[in-house]
Amino acid sequence: MLKTFPKGGIHPPENKITSSKGIKKMTLPKVVYVPISQHIGIPAEITVDVKDKVEIGQVIAKSGGFMSSNIHSPVAGTVTKLDKIIDTSGYKKQCIVIRTDLKDESNFTDTAYPLKTTITLEPKAILQKINDSGIVGLGGATFPSHVKLSIKEGTKLDHLIINGVECEPYLTADHRLMLEKAEEIIVGIKILMFALHIDKAIIGIENNKSDAIETFKKIITKDDHIKIAALKVKYPQGGEKQLVRALLNREVPKNGLPLDVGVIVHNVGTIFAIYQAIQHNIPLIERVVTVTGKKLENPSNYWVKIGTPITDLVNEVGGLPEDTRKIVNGGPMMGKAIKNMDVPVTKGTSGILVISEDEASRGEPKNCIRCGECVDVCPMGLEPHLLMNLSEKGMYEKASAEDIMTCIECGSCSYVCPSHRPLLDYIRFGKNSVKKMNTSKN
Amino acid sequence: MSDSVLYSVLLLASLGVVAAIMLYVVSKKFYVFENPLIAEVEELLPSANCGGCGSPGCKAFAEKLVNTEDISDLFCPVGGNEVMKQVAAVLGKEVAEKDPTLAVLRCQGGCDVRPKTTEYQGPRTCAISAMIYSGETDCQYGCLGDGDCVNVCKFDAMYMDESTGLPVIITDKCTSCGACVEACPRDIIEMRPKHKRDLKIFVGCLNEDKAGIAKKACDVACIGCSKCQDICPKDAVLMVNNLAYIDPVICTLCRKCVEVCPTNSIIETNFPPKKVKKVESESEANVESINLKTDA
């Protein structure tokens, strides 16, 4: 019996069409648009000016506080504009526009460095380096990693969990990374275990990626204290709380963090970024992005510079098919449809999904038939139908009492609703309103 | 036969007497004193219970008026100065006089001038679509067209114009309670002073983008060219973030800015048509609509 979380969950069609496509190097974009807010928290502060020459990996925006992150130039080139460019949120946000210097050789140096296993830095220096390198959670939430790793003294911490679940349909970025950079990831895990003085680590991988499980099993030795756990395929297992429950049978308290039960969770992508930063001194300027869609000519996985416009990515896979209806930043469950193709890839972009006419329709919402499907599938044990009604009617106090804030916005409820009710839209709205209500109270 | 009638009448009468005595005793015993002024003031208020004053209803507002020492910052926008004067007379307190205001829609990006570039599928309320993204058009400042303002209006003073997809404010019915201003996630509804004969001049755009981007998104966008600022004899035009704003207090309604605006984004309402132009139909004259704008 494979491990999984007990409450709720769904199993949408996997559609992992790019799982056998190796990660290719993306053509160098001519212009990159680097948003200064690519993480949860305070936007970074711009440190460059128009017409400045920037080097690859140079800090172009400094962390704006503790809950913030540095941003580095993904290319060598010239800053042409500091302008507001539309991003995934659908609104124009401050961006640094850099024109790539195509003659500069540093833009073409291969990042496939030889594996370096010896850890030379001290724990404190490692954490500082992670902070300086602008590393954020690459699973999609873009939570600044140094915040997650700043642990108060005396906190009991016994497990490091590596999230290789990738439960989103279509996406294969983490899967390919695990196959191709398995050794580096193991070193990355060791770095974190050393820095945080944790002696046990578990890599959680869903069973549909058996090749990744095999790869890791071959590499690790007994002395590593790293376990590989195969998990039953179920969405949203990649959620922190679900993963901790599945692997260790520990319940993260509501409004709490995995830290409260002695666990710290990191995505495999983040671990690889940490490895790159610590061992090779490369800040987070590049990430793996799955460019996929059923009608695309040549869907694949790419190493993409942060700030590359999505147009470039789509051109790379052979252009947009004719009946494209939606382009989603992220996977089909948690991702967000983008407003136009100039939206740049940010640290949180794990995939670009091109959806055609026949898949994109949302269905006409009808009345709730009280079937209770949404309650069954909610991984947080909430009552989505109730939360939607409360948000719709503006009863935010009651919604707050019904734990609307614990919703992880996985969208399982909207997915199963036979009446096509926009449950998640209203719950998100309710969460926003509750947040506003709470801040106005304080 | 006659006995049973007699008994039942007696029984009921005695029950009635007992109940009356009980009610009398209870009403005396548990009497709650309420300042009679509250009822008197409430009588004066418009009983619209709109919440425009900030209190949850007219009764609550009356209580507040009676119980607050200094009521100069309390105001009933629906009743206006007239009602507040009467209240002041009853209470013997000072009230501030405020100029009557009216809600105006600072966006004229209808379907014909502001092309849709995306299609939104989801709950049709402005609050949710604004949370999700910047709307179906390329303008992230303008009207979303889902009518949250119309839904909250308690005075039937707004409706959605189906040809433009924009809400329309019926000047005669608007009480300036401010519910629509609260409901609009884009803050495109502004309360502006109501002049005599309801003459108004205001910039019907909130687009802060640079000229090219703004104009591409919407034909009637303010492009921040400052022509109105240059021509204004009273310096009533403020330019902030590529956007003009006409200060209603300074503006003398001379209409010079309307003429020079290259994108027709300055709206004038209810002015008599200029001599050279054709006379507009009278039925529309007292309905404030952005369509009513006379072309400069």
CATH architecture identity of the domain at 123-280 in chain A: 3-Layer(aba) Sandwich
Point out poorly predicted stretches of chain A.
Answer: none
Q: Radius of gyration of chain B, Cα only, in angstroms?
A: 27 Å
> How many beta-strand runs of chain B?
8
CATH topology of the largest domain in chain B: Alpha-Beta Plaits
Helix content of chain A: 25-40%
In terms of DSSP E residues, the strand content of chain B is: 5-15%
Tally the beta strands of chain A.
17
Reading off the top of the CATH hierarchy, the class of the domain at 123-280 in chain A is best stated as Alpha Beta
Task: Give the oligomeric state.
Answer: heterodimer
CATH topology assignment of the domain at 123-280 in chain A: Rossmann fold
Overview of this protein structure:
The complex is a heterodimer of chains A (442) and B (296). Chain A is globular and about 65 Å long. Among the domains of chain A are: 123-280, NADH-ubiquinone oxidoreductase 51kDa subunit (Rossmann fold), CATH 3.40.50.11540; 373-441, no CATH class. Helices cover 28% and strands 20% of the residues of chain A. Chain A is of the alpha/beta class. With 296 residues, chain B is of the alpha+beta class. Chain B folds into two domains: 36-91, Electron transport complex subunit B, putative Fe-S cluster (3-methyladenine DNA Glycosylase II, Chain A, domain 3), CATH 1.10.15.40; 101-292, 2-Layer Sandwich (Alpha-Beta Plaits), CATH 3.30.70.20. Helix content of chain B is 31%, strand content 11%. Chain B has helices at residues 2-29, 36-44, 58-67, 80-91, 126-132, 148-152, 179-183, 211-217, 227-231, 256-260, and strands at residues 101-105, 158-161, 166-169, 189-193, 200-203, 237-240, 243-246, 266-269. A two-stranded antiparallel sheet of chain B has the order 1-4. A two-stranded antiparallel sheet of chain B has the order 2-3. Residues 277-296 of chain B have low confidence and may be disordered. The A-B interface holds A 84, 86, 89-92, 337, 339-340, 361-362, 365, 422, 425-426, 428-429, 432 and B 117-118, 121-123, 127-128, 131-134, 140, 209.
